[in-house]
Automatic annotation (TrEMBL):
<protein>
    <recommendedName>
        <fullName>Chromosome partitioning protein ParA</fullName>
    </recommendedName>
</protein>
<keyword id="KW-0175">Coiled coil</keyword>
<feature type="coiled-coil region">
    <location>
        <begin position="181"/>
        <end position="252"/>
    </location>
</feature>
């Protein structure tokens, strides 16, 4: 009789309880060796099952285990569960169509130190992981070659009918097998008891660690609470200081408002006084203008009379020139005085030019044009601002006298600071 054909495979469960991925065990070993990756399981812990399948697509053994994947979809490099050995040493499980299977899971683990890496299948109706596993194997998505049904090893009349979980041929060594099974069951019970003790000790250790962690968390919370209370105290103190500062600023602002109101009233009084003073100055300027007008008229009349007298004396001038020449020959010097030029000695040959225009002659000695000299002379004789007020009247504010014509600048030296600034703005 030929040995039954068995196939090893690994199936991966999705979170919804369905089988999402299947592969032969040889492919699974390639995955563990790092030759391939499964990005679909990246950074997840996946539920997987190692199954041994007969040639008639019936499950003979099953090991339910966890497998962790990193962020690249590669399995945990430290994973080392001996699936094949655990399947051979597994205890009996439910009948999935070919008699009781060998089952290894968290609650039935033949190797205690691997228990934490196994998981228990759900047996809830409608969400039975074993039934899902059985149906997935029957679909045969892996394409397993099915084996024809073998001929019975014994004649039908020699078979003994027994319950399904006792369908075994009559064997003289049955008693030995039962004793071995009883001993193995005893060993498993001892291992289970040992596992329970280990789990209790582990739970007690975890409880102690949890209490210690709670104590540390409480201490840290108290420290943080004290720190927060200190921060609140500091903030409240800063708030009180800020409120005091705000109150002080409000008081200062109120005082400043009072001072500004007083200054505003004082300024209004000054403005009214300045307006009255301006009216007085306008009257003075009008009187000065009238006086200057009368003086100019008189000067014009005098100039006319002088011109008349000059015409009358032109005849005598020729004789006077002869007299001047005789005087110059005798060493007589003609000296005149002009502001800005001082005392000037007029040579005989310059007497006519001087007599024709004394101011032009004095301007040439000061090295300035006659117009500048005339303006300076007017300023020198009466140093007052010639700027115009808004009402058209002259400012007439007293100015510092410019002593020399060369330093005199028309429009600046003859203006006060106010009208000089206004002139600069107009020019700019």
């Amino acid at each position: 009789m030929s040995k039954p054909q068995l196939t090893e495979a690994v199936m991966f469960f999705a979170p919804d309880g369905s089988v999402s991925k299947q592969m032969f065990y040889a492919e699974f070993e390639t995955l563990l060796d790092g030759l391939v990756k499964m990005p679909v399981f990246a950074d997840e812990q996946v539920r997987a099952v190692y199954v041994v399948i007969s040639g008639r697509l019936q499950i003979r053994s099953a090991v339910f285990f966890y497998l962790d994947f990193d962020e690249d979809g590669a399995p945990d490099a430290g994973w080392n569960i001996p699936l094949q050995q655990m399947a051979e040493r597994a205890g009996r499980g439910p009948d999935l169509g070919a008699g009781p299977i060998r089952l290894a899971c968290r609650s039935q683990c033949p190797v205690s130190w691997h228990q934490m890496h196994l998981w228990d299948p759900s047996l809830v109706p409608g969400n039975n992981d074993l039934a899902t596993l059985r149906d997935s194997v029957r679909i045969n998505a892996l394409g397993i070659l099915m084996q024809e049904e073998e001929a019975p090893a014994v004649a039908p009349d020699r078979l003994q009918v027994a319950p399904e979980d006792q369908w075994y041929a009559v064997d003289p060594s049955r008693d030995l097998a039962e004793k071995l099974a009883e001993r193995l069951s005893h060993d498993y019970r001892q291992k289970a008891a040992q596992l329970v003790r280990q789990q209790r000790e582990r739970l007690a250790g975890l409880a102690r660690e949890h209490q210690a962690e709670l104590a540390r968390a409480a201490a840290q919370s108290d420290s943080q609470l004290a720190e927060l209370q200190e921060q609140i105290r500091v903030l409240r103190q800063a708030l009180r200081q800020q409120e005091g500062l705000n109150q002080s600023l409000k008081s200062q602002l109120a005082e400043q408002l009072v001072v500004q109101q007083s200054e505003r009233e004082e300024m209004a009084v000054r403005v009214r006084a300045a307006e009255r003073h301006a009216r007085t100055e306008r009257e003075i300027l009008r009187e000065q203008f009238d006086e200057e007008l009368r003086a100019r008229i008189a000067a014009t009349q005098a100039a006319g009379e002088e011109q008349t007298r000059r015409r009358e004396g032109e005849a005598a001038q020729r004789g006077a020139s002869q007299v001047l020449e005789r005087l110059a020959a005798q060493g007589v010097v003609f000296v005149v005085f002009h502001p800005g030029a001082g005392h000037l000695t007029v040579p005989l040959q310059d007497v006519d030019r001087y007599l024709a225009s004394p101011l032009a002659y004095a301007a040439s000695k000061c090295f300035v044009p006659e117009s500048q000299y005339r303006q300076w002379l007017e300023h020198y004789q009466r140093p007052r601002c010639e700027g115009l007020q808004a009402d058209g009247q002259r400012c007439d504010v007293a100015l510092e006298r410019v002593e020399t014509p060369g330093r005199f600048v028309a429009g600046e030296s003859s203006c006060c600071m106010l009208h000089k600034a206004a002139r600069l703005r107009t020019v700019g």
